Amino acid sequence: MPHATLPPPxxxxxxxxxxxxxxxxxxxxxxxxxxxxxxxxxxxxxxxPLEWCYRMGVTDITVVTPPESLQAIxxxxxxxxxxTSLPAPRPDILAPKDLTHEMGTGELFRLPEVQDAIKGDFIxxxxxxxxELDGAPLADAWMIEEAGLGAASGGLTESGKIPMGLGGEKLxxxxxxxxWYQTKGEGSVKGEETDFIATTPLPAPxxxxxxxxxxxxxxxxxxxxxxxxxxxxxxxxxxxxxRHSLIRKHGRIKMLTTHRDAHVYFFPYWVIDMIxxxxxxxxxxxxxxxxxxxxxxxxxxxxxLGLRQIFQSAESFDGEMDSSQIQxxxxxxxxxxxxxxxxxxxxPTVSLASRVQNSNIPQAAQAITKSSKLTVPPILAYVQPSDxxxxxxxxxxxxxxxxxxxxxxxxxxxxxxxxxDTASPFAHQAKIAHKETIPxxxxxxxxxxxxxxxxxxxxxxxxxxxxxxxxxxxxEGARLLRCLLMESVEVGPNVQLTDCIxxxxxxxxxxxxxxxxxxxxxxxxxxxxxVIAWGTEAKGEKFMRFExxxxxxxxxxxxxxxxxxxxxxxxxx
Amino acid sequence: MxxxxxxxxxxxKSKAQDDERDEPLQAVILADPFETRFSPFTLEHPxxxxxxxxxxxxxxxxxxxxxxxxxxVYVYCGAHRDQVEEYINESKWxxxxxxxxxxxELIQSTSHSIGDAMRxxxxxxxxxxxxxxVYGDVVSNLPLESALAQHRARRAKDKNAIMTMVLRExxxxxxxxxxxxxxxxxxxxxxxxxLHFEQMPNKEQSHFLSIDPLTLSDHQEIEIRxxxxxxxxxICTPDVLALWSDNFxxxxxxxxxxxxxxxxxxxxxxxxxxxxxxxxxxxxxxxLHAYDAVSKDIVSRWAxxxxxxxxLVRGQTYRLQKGNIYKEDGxxxxxxCVINPKTVIGRSTSVGDGSIISNSIIGRHCQIGRGVKIDGxxxxxxxxxxxxxxxxxxIIASEASLGKRCIIEAGALISHGVSIGERKTILGTQxxxxxxxxxxxxDEVVRGEPDTAIVGAGGSGFEFRDSEEEDEDxxxxxxxxxxxxxxxxxxxxxxxxxxxxxxxxxxxxQISHQRSEAGSFVSVGSVDSATSHHxxxxxxxxxxxxxxxxxxxxxxANIQLELTSLRMSTNASEHxxxxxxxxxxxxxxxxxIKAGTSVRDAVAQVFGQHQDLLTRTMFDKNASNKTDQVxxxxxxxxxxxxxxxxxxxxxxAATKLVEMDVIEDDAMxxxxxxxxxxxxEGMRKVREKTQxxxxxxxxxxxxxxxxxxxxxxxxxxxx
Amino acid sequence: MVTGAVVTAPGLSSYLKSLKSxxxxxxxxxxxxxxxxxxxxxxxxxxxxxLALLSRVVGEFKGxxxxxxxxxxxxIGRRLTSAQPREVVVGNIIRRVLGxxxxxVEDNVEAVTEATSDAGxxxxxxxxxxxxxxxxxxxxxxxxxxxxxAEPMDSSSHYSENMSDSGEMxxxxxxxTSHTSYAPTSTAPLVNSLxxxxxxxxxxxxxxxxxxxxxxxxxxxxTSLNLERLADSSHSRFDLKGEVMNGIQxxxxxxxxxxxxxxxxxLHHIHSNEIILTHTASSTVxxxxxxxxxxxxxxxxxxxxxxxxxxxxxxxxxxxxxxxxEDDEEDSWxxxxxxGIQVVMIPDSHVYAIMSQVNKVILATHTVLANGxxxxxxxxxxxxxxxxxxxxxxxxxSGLYKLSPVYPFDIDELIEYGDAGSVVPYEDGDFVDLxxxxxxxxxxxxxxxxxxxxxxxGGHAPSYLYRIVADHYRTEDINL
Lengths: 573, 719, 480
Known about the structure:
The complex is a heterotrimer. By secondary structure, chain A is of the alpha/beta class. Helix content of chain A is about 30%, strand content about 20%. In chain A, strands 5-4-1-6-13-8-14-10-9-12 form a ten-stranded mixed β-sheet. A six-stranded parallel β-sheet of chain A has the order 16-19-22-25-28-31, with no helix packed on it. In chain A, β2 and β3 form a beta hairpin. Chain A is elongated and about 80 Å long. Chain C is α/β, with parallel strands linked by helices. Chain C has a seven-stranded mixed β-sheet. Chain C has a three-stranded antiparallel β-sheet with strand order 5-6-8, with helices on one face. Chains in contact: A-B, A-C, B-C. Chains A and B meet through α7, β11, α8, β12 and α10 of A and β11, α8, β12, α12 and α14 of B. Chain A: Belongs to the eIF-2B gamma/epsilon subunits family.
């Protein structure tokens, strides 16, 4: 871990282990097998965000999960070889007692347990994020843009409040940072949910950031809404209305329609406060971000969100503190720099002819509003350029994605091939755990497949672009193409599987190649422990215990859309 | 063109041969944008000859074209053609030795809008290949190679890329940007394609740029840009002209042409692209504000090498001194006069003792007296300024003269030849001229009677009141000007906050949905001031067309037809249609009344003929709450507020409408009780007389109610 | 379809091309407009363009009347210089050519009148040295931007007494190419004057005879003589045009060779392991350094001269070629780095800090003025003063054609102020509104900050420049 050596940036990371509403096939019983434990390329889902945190040197990690899933997760935490192999200290697992699966992330953050858990600036992660992008540069960028020169986590005072302006926060308070990634392009999944965001460029720094810095892709978020909500809006009034006040405030607004919120947020401490005050905030990704972004430019919205109280109460609180404290809190370090440029809120200028000067009314209007000017700290957006060369960022919240991402990870050169340093953080030690166990007379494409510990592969099998979990058994003559097998799956002889996801301990019965009926499955999902009889030919089906199959089947369709919709909230439904 | 002149073009020509080009680069200068932004100055002189930093505007344009390596230039003159022609003929651009152009032609046309001009141009068929379309007031040192190259590359790929607009990036707030309304370009950065264009009025706060959902779905990434200076430099292909002629109703190049072409992209598939430059200087002197800004830019050398001291025009001998002070030869300065930085002084101008001049541009042969204070003023040639006068930010045109101890407040405009007596004060809002138009939209001007109240004894000139301020690409500024700036601002602001409240009250995330209400809220008070771009665009045309057909007594069917088509084209809301109708009708009525017909007859005549036209503007005949009809009435009322005899008209109109059953009784009542009909003093005054009608209606309606009740009971029984 | 390249903005190359096909008048106008629009800028392109134009003028010139030719060239010169007074080089070239014409005339006149008037010969010889200081004074009555004022004829008559003196000067081979061979690199005026003595035995110790004052009538006679000479030159059968053309050709060659002949001195000035500081993208300096680099290893510290020249500087360091359009005809050379020289580029602000380690400062220049001062790319003065503070020698490399008889009275007028936009982005609306930016393109470096000039004649002390000026420009041409 290159960054393990760095002093921890002092962040605290929250990993929200949600329901996986769209994994009806596999997460039907959250108590024993929650979404967080679904294997992505033979590693439990939650491993990825954890690894990400460790990679960026964040060790203060809290995994938030509903009580019902607590045991399952704890168990895996202590047993799974991938999770145990993660560096110390172990993440502490928080299971607020009244946290249910239906609860939105907004509420989640209003739970007392969570409130207590958060002590400073914090990072919010979903459990289903696969983020190859190193977090440290992100954190750096955030600190440079927002946190000024001071420590990232405003030091807690004994009273548990963060003193204002500590660390030279510009404009009193520091903003947040979110991550968006392009869903189109290679590795894109049809029907993947997207978010519509509008961003404006940050004021150009006097000293341009280095060419490799992420700051080049960081902009100021002014509007964010899930695409389907956007659709409702546009249908409602036949167009997308954009306030002139926004346009007037920001000369250049970039709108992205195909990006998606990675739900990775760097939040300053006061955001907790904001969520607390606004009961109406259902979920972080929608309400909190959306309103926060809007508050940046919409006059008077900040007040409505109670931001003034948040900031000013804190300020007054400062006032009460001993004078020395006030001294250094009042100093905005960044202003001391000779190259410091203030925000351009200059006074309206008088212009030539009166007939002309009358035309800059907005300024006149501003003058009126000036009295109650409240600067809302910005919420920044790191929008990853849609260029395949950039590291992988994906949220795995549909079966489709689960498959594609797994397969994509399977393609990564293993540590053996690439070598310790160059290998991707997600690379496995070896593509095929035990080569010697593979019999000669069968075809296994190692470059795009993953075979975990003690997988038995019999003769004449053909395995292409597949991920096969531990203790699986592939019998003679079976053909696997683009399949994901979770642990201890049995595939009988002469079975043909394409684009299938096979749950744990499920069994595909086989038969002799002679017999006239055969088993062919395409785009199927087989639930844990299911047994598929010989002679089944299915396409795009879901094999489940009780017949959820129908609505599970069209998992892109009606019913699931609600699920999809509160999916980004990661709320535990 | 004699051979010598031809050969004078060796440079471009020879280059041309090297690049085996088949056609020369052509350019069209619209010397007269058919606007009255610069009135009263433009009464006597063509706009393109007004001096900017003591150099006629059109010189800059020519320089720009010469830089770009243009060969054939066509100058489109409107008003004062003779002067333009005269000037150009003796300028170096015409002279065969000096001119870098192989061809320089003046085109006179009877056109009264840019649209006409373009169509006229199309019929002449002068333009063979791609050409530059610029205004006579472009100031730019921009080299066009890259823009042209890109344009051609695009053309080569796709025949439908018909036009490339050159835009200069300029921050969110910039003095050189258009002020009255800011143009908003919606661009697909990946293809530099312009997807949508709108004018954002800076006056009202609570309006909305509406983006077509299709644009959202079609493009992964779009940019809304308001930080651009539209310097009016377009690289066009002949198809552009064709389009102009196809759509005979296009008038303005941006608001009309651009907006429309982008809108029906699905129909004709023509795409328009943008070329956004971030270096070099490019701006248009589109109005007086821009005049001020661009002058500043030039003086402080943002437009280098277009600076006074490069003496672009023959015979100029400016020299730069420290602090951006430019002096021409033969300037006579008294020993103890003070010339502060950012000042330009023309030849043989004399400045008297103790005068202080700063940030000003002073032309040639001016006589500045003793102890004069000039700050930020633009003083043209042959101006006399008497001792002890004080001139602030204002424009004093050539041959004007001020008496002793005059005070010119910031913003005043003093036109050609005006002379102000002693100790007079000219207010910032006043525009003094000496001549006025004989008739509207006719160019010949006559000298008006001096108004001694303003210009004092022995002065000549009077305050200029412009008959019509037609606005082409952006509403003219004084629509707002007259005093009510701040209350208007506050009003619009309150509108803003209201709609924010609403949008917040129902927890959803559209940027706002209160559009129409907010829109009408503002618009009621001032129906004919451009509320939103669409509305404005529509109102303008629709009202006009309806009015005309009213005058010519067309079938209301035809009017209806026209109306709908217009409405489609600008996808105007019903509300706007109604507004247009109301505006037109009222205008007609008032006109009839002026003509002598009694109010009653006038109303009867106008409304009577067009019953079905009216009915078709309201769709809530059998709805319980008659929002449409109420809206109609509110509009009517609002429009009549500032008409004389409005109340009586309203009364008779209302009665007539009820008679014709266009407006139902309870609609009338709803209107009466509705908040909007009595929201301010004016509205209340207007509707006073209508009280009687309402009373009458109330009685009748009560009876009806009772009847209805009975019926209901019967119904119940029957069940 | 029209190709994109069509509309490359006009510049030097396009001008030279057009010159062939275009008659004189238009091409004069054309050059004027190019100069005004700054589409031709910097010394060398201006020099080239002017020379090309003049050769065209002479080529077109009908008749044999030298006086007319002189007048024509003057008049063109006046127009050009008034178009762009700050490009002093234009004036220099004009003067060179004028001088050329006169030489040609006098050579032949002398060929004719050799036997007849000896008095005319010997008598001016006395005043040889006596006129030198006066020559300077006559220079100093002249400020570049007051061009239009001076009438041609009266000026020539006013200085006509020097006519003859320069007449004998003209016995030396034109362009004094002989100098280069002898001239020691660290020239003192003394040496050269001695050399002058030797090379002209016919001007003996007369150098300090006080009897130089002309009777007023003498002037008249001389004038008439002079004119009559010029006039009768028309009768005498010699090919005025041809010789002038040759002369111009020589000047053109000189322009081409300047850099190399300067570079020849490199080894005398740059020694191993030295640290050389220089600035701006100047082909002269680059070649100078390259020449040294062939034999010696040293370090170059390059100041980037932000904002108006840094792009050119960068590219000259990386590719060895300026990106400017007009330099396409300029032969590119391989950058210093490839010659194994370590190049360090620093921002202008670091100059003072690094100066203590620098052994020698080598400056390129825009113009060299008669008083030994120079107008060079902005930043030069700071560098020079820093060098002064550290007692670091400042060497200026400059072609002769940049050397002008102009005396700087109003320094501000020599300095051109450039585009404010290159300092502050124009987009920054509030800034643009509130702040005025002055972006001088050139600095005035007073003579006392410069230690040595290296021209294609070799090295000279600043105090000696007036002499070279005197050798190259005819006093009667100093005011165009």
